[in-house]
Structure to design on (496 residues):
């Protein structure tokens, strides 16, 4: 994740302290609860959707369980619980996917921080880190969960901006990606590999420098994965900066539209972003006068557009918060809505894995509380509408609306709204609605018809731009006046 100071301290303390043997506890019996499952077999992509082996849409809805990437070289919490009990609880809480961060040290290091008291984790005794990973993957698959392996760090000492370091060259990265893909070939529990966690400056996207261009490196890394198993999904995160515009580490995918990742095996690419709240870092958009109405525009600009335009599936691989402030609570509530609720959209949605299952994430906390057993029901409840519960297809008719201010002066501005057909069928027409957050008033509109009731706007298509084929878009614009802050509204779109 975005490594704030508290996270760095947490990781250091984990490496120094968590290898201490935990007190003995009674062995925990495995739960009989099983997660909702997709069809057996590997997953693939079609447009912006991930499909299972029966070509039914799948939504990734899961959690990050970290620890393999630290000096423990196994997931955290095994010093107090049996791994099967932990995995059972993840499934019973409604999560269907586990993102497992790891470092390249798992290929050579010895695991520590596992409690074997009273029969707990007995079958992990004497195993290497990769042997422990085998056990976790095997059990997760047996209870209907899927796993995404996340190359989080080159080694357990800390995060790196680039995918290589002097100690861990690119050749090692590529060899290990291929080795892991080969290791789990034939076991579709592992659906894919996240190539490298949170590339950031000086990593670039599309700059052409082989030493720093993450887009080109991701193509090399993706080919290594596919050489080991051509049926795996390849998850590619963004960078920090693109053309001077800075975002969360790994969250800036602005360049992927102009410079897409190219893989030799089709239907395997999934883009991945990370997004966080003020408990991690007070980014400028949190203090914008239009907050939280500005958030959808921020997300769309950096990563959401790839999904909205049907370029590829987008998976929010990390997002999290302590929920300590009202700002953070509003952020999470707004983000969950942006990711699209499962009930109407099913698998035609953004995938996600929450950071984190662990409670010992210093700047976010976790789904579990500090006892490593009790679920933080307040935090978990925020995610209820985007958990999966199964698979489902897109709405027959659906559309999205993206609002952009083009020009602004003392008392006026012009804006463009782009409507995109996001449904599974052509649209005959569309209607966009929003509520102004301030004192704005449309003076003139073009390419659409506008009506206003109080602060509420309703804009319908013109006679010549209502019909939209699959993935097609149309735009309308307007001139408006305003006094006070010119906050950005959140438009909703309805297709007919």
């Amino acid at each position: 994740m975005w490594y704030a100071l508290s996270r760095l301290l947490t990781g250091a303390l984990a490496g120094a302290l968590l290898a201490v043997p935990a007190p003995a506890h009674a062995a925990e019996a495995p739960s009989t609860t099983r997660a909702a499952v997709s069809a057996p077999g590997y997953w693939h992509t079609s447009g912006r959707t991930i499909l299972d082996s029966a070509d039914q849409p799948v939504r990734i809805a899961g959690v990050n369980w970290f620890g393999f990437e630290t000096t423990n070289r196994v997931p955290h919490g095994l010093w107090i619980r049996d791994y099967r009990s932990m995995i059972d609880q993840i499934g019973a809480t409604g999560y269907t996917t586990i993102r497992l961060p790891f470092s390249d040290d798992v290929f050579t290091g010895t695991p520590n921080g596992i409690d074997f008291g009273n029969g707990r984790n007995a079958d992990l005794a004497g195993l290497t880190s990769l042997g422990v990973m085998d056990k976790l993957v095997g059990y997760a698959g047996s209870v209907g969960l899927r796993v995404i392996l996340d190359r989080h760090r080159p080694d357990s000492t800390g995060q790196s901006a680039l995918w290589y370091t002097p100690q861990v060259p690119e050749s090692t990265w590529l060899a290990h990606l291929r080795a892991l893909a080969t290791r789990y070939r034939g076991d579709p529990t592992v659906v894919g590999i996240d190539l490298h966690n949170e590339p950031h400056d000086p990593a670039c996207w599309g700059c052409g420098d082989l030493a720093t261009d993450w887009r080109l490196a991701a193509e090399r890394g993706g080919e290594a994965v596919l050489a080991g198993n051509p049926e795996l999904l390849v998850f590619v995160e963004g960078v920090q900066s693109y053309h001077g515009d800075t975002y969360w580490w790994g969250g800036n995918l602005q360049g992927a539209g102009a410079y897409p990742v190219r893989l030799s095996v089709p239907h395997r690419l999934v883009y991945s972003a990370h997004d966080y709240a003020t408990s991690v870092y007070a980014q400028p958009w949190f203090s914008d006068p239009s907050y939280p109405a500005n958030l959808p525009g921020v997300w769309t600009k950096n990563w959401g557009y790839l999904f909205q335009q049907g370029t590829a599936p987008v998976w929010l691989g990390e997002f999290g918060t302590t929920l300590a402030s009202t700002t953070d609570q509003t952020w999470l509530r707004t983000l969950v809505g942006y990711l699209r609720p499962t009930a109407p959209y099913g698998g035609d949605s953004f995938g996600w894995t929450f950071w984190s299952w662990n409670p010992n994430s210093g700047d976010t906390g976790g789904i579990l509380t500090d006892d490593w057993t009790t679920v933080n029901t307040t935090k978990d409840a925020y995610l209820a509408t985007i958990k999966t519960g199964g698979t489902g297809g897109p709405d027959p008719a659906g559309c999205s609306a993206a609002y952009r201010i083009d020009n602004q002066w003392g008392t006026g501005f012009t804006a463009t709204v782009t409507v995109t057909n996001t449904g599974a069928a052509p649209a005959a027409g569309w209607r966009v609605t929003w509520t102004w957050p301030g004192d704005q008033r449309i003076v003139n509109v073009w390419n659409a018809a506008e009506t206003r009731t109080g602060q509420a706007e309703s804009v319908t298509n013109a006679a010549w731009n209502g019909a939209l084929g699959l993935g097609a878009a149309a735009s309308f614009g307007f001139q408006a006046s305003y006094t006070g802050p010119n906050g950005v509204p959140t438009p909703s779109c309805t297709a007919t």
